[in-house]
Structures are given as C-alpha cells and as structure tokens.
Write a structure and sequence with these properties.
Layout: H1 2-13, E1 33-38, H2 46-50, H3 72-79, E2 87-89, H4 103-107, H5 114-122, E3 134-139, H6 142-146, H7 153-168, E4 176-180, H8 197-217, E5 224-228, H9 230-239, E6 248-252, E7 254-257, E8 262-265, E9 272-274, H10 282-297, E10 307-314, E11 319-326
Helix pairs in contact: 1-5, 3-10, 5-7, 7-8
C-alpha cells in the first residue's frame, strides 16, 4: 500500500492549490518553478484530498490547509510571480522526516512521510532538467518530536539530509534547495511548558546547521543549500509582536468547545501568531514568506567562477556566518 500511495503523490500534486491568491508586488523572475516537500506547514490541501475531505475539517480550516488562509509557500509563489502550473507541492500534513505520518495515528493505514514524498518525486521517469532557477523546498522534522516518534535529533536531521542528498544527486539534479529550521517547539500553544521541547528544537537546529554546512562543503555538491532561520523569526516575534501587528503570541485562535463539540474562533485572528495548537495563522505565514523572499533574493547569482556567498544559520538559529561556496561549472 505504501508503494501505491507514494506513486499517487505525483498524480495528485498538480491539483493541490485551492486558494485563490490576491495579487502582490512581485520580486522579479528569479525562479521558474517550486518543488515543495514537507509537512502541514507547507501542505495546501494534499492530506485533505487524500482523506476524502475529512482532515483537516474545512471549515474552520481554509481550503484543506492547516491554517486560516494562504500558507507561506503560496505567498512566496506570489512574491516571485509564479503561476500554479509552476509549483509542484508534495508536502503532506502530518509527515515526519522519515516514512511515518501523524495521520496514521488517526486513520490507520499508510500516509506519506518526507522520505516517501522525495522517493515518489525521484522515481518519476519524466523529471525535467533543473537549474538554479528551480527552487526545491525541504521543511520537516517538527512532527517527529511533537508526537513522540523520536527524541533523537541525529535521526531526524539524518532523514532531512538524506532527502536533500537525493534531490541534489545527479539522478534528480536540484541546484537550489532551501531548508528551514524549527521554531521553539516548547512555545507552541499545545506544548507550552512540556519539558524538553525547547531543548529538542535547539539541538535539532544546531545539528541541521552543521550537517547542511558539511554537505555544502562536500566536493561532490554542485548545488546551493540555503538555510532559512525560522527559529529567530519566531523569537523576534515573541519579543516584539507589534512588528506584525500581533497582540497574542501564546494562545491558539481556534479551539474546541468540549461541552458542545463545536469550534470556537477568536475575535481577531489577524492578531494571533497561532491558528491552532500547532500551526501558524496566515498572518504568520506571510511573515515566513517575507523572510524566505528576503533570504532568497539576497543570494547572488554565481559569477563566472561559480562562486557565490550565502548567509547560513549556525548554532541556535540566531547566529549567522558568511561562507563562500563554489559550485562546479554547468
């Protein structure tokens, strides 16, 4: 069943964008396409479709996504002026960094994890030839820790690096990959005060930064790996909510009334950091997209020698280091 399911990911990916996007100012044609892999933070409706419209319930969730509006990757698509046809999104809500998915705890059966998404993509016999203007996104790991699949950051980071290695291998040929780290999991409304969550996120981010740098420095790597510092974005927002016109950065806007078994939505969702106990509001997704846009547009084109400079997160996600990367000529 797992094999049949993962094969179906490619077939369903072309019809996963359900939210009509309002026009924003574009940044210019820096990228020609997006290929997206991950979990609910990037899933525009894939799990919803796979469960026959059961999960997440929509409404109150927007168009089968895990938020109340557009996700960061959809905003990023707008920022770079890409049509839906230029975006292949294989992210599935509940995906862990490996082959497990939280949805299996709810529905049984097999649902894709990150490595399944990557494997389905890599097995497609009709893959295009990719260059630096084709952006690959790999964002996963939170569900591994949040739902008790593992407390070993080495295992989770190992899965993420394996996913990136598959994408940048000659068989696939990705040339530009962005890899976000994790926010402080101990500050999610559903996990606030649970011992160990903050420490897991910090260790994860440290190990991810180190592993990405090592992979980037490997002689065989002919791709640009771009870290995205989500940890610092959230920390800065906690410290100064007004920068995004937020008034609540600790509670979920969406809650369940256990007495009536109905949904309760806060009066002003646009002022909340979190939509539910795990997921950001669309306002927060817009901020994530803003960080991604700034990060991506600050990475210069390779010069004649193939050398470029990027900014990488190091340690806790709050310290930056400038490194020079050399890619092999085309």
């Amino acid at each position: 069943m797992k094999y049949l399911l993962t094969k179906s990911l490619i077939a369903t990916a072309g019809i996963t964008f359900f939210t009509l996007l309002s026009p924003l100012k574009t940044l210019g044609a820096t990228f020609d396409s997006f290929q997206v892999f991950g979990d609910s933070l990037s899933d525009p409706g894939n799990l919803y479709q796979l469960t026959g419209g059961l999960y997440p319930p929509s409404p109150p969730y927007a168009n089968g996504s895990f938020s109340n509006g557009s996700l960061w990757i959809e905003y990023l698509q707008q920022d770079f002026g890409l049509p839906n046809s230029a975006v292949l999104n294989l992210a599935y809500g509940g995906a862990t960094s490996g082959h497990k998915n939280v949805a299996e705890l709810l529905f049984g059966g097999n649902f894709p994890g990150l490595l399944d998404e990557i494997g389905a993509f890599a097995a497609n016999p009709f893959l295009s030839t990719f260059d630096a203007r084709d952006l690959f996104v790999v964002w996963a790991g939170a569900n591994d820790y949040l739902f008790g699949f593992t407390t070993d950051p080495d295992a989770v980071v190992g899965n993420i690096i394996a996913a990136v290695q598959t994408l940048i291998s000659p068989a696939v040929g990705a040339k530009t990959v962005i890899v976000p780290n994790l926010p402080d999991l101990g500050k999610l409304p559903s996990r606030a005060g649970i011992p160990g969550m903050t420490d897991l996120a910090l260790k994860h981010n440290q190990k991810l930064a180190t592993a990405l740098q090592a992979l980037q420095n490997a002689p065989s790597t002919a791709a640009t790996l771009i870290p995205l510092d989500i940890y610092s974005l959230f920390e800065n927002t906690y410290n100064d909510p007004s920068r995004y016109s937020l008034t609540n950065v600790t509670d979920a806007c969406l809650n369940t009334n256990t007495n009536t078994n109905t949904w309760q939505i806060c009066a002003k969702p646009s002022e909340y950091l979190f939509w539910d106990g795990f997921h950001p509001t669309t306002v927060t997704h817009r901020a994530i997209a803003g960080l991604a846009s700034t990060t991506l547009t600050s990475v210069p084109e390779p010069d004649a020698t193939g050398a470029i400079v990027i900014v990488a997160f190091v340690g806790l996600g709050v310290k930056v280091a400038q490194v020079t990367l050399t890619s092999s000529p085309p």
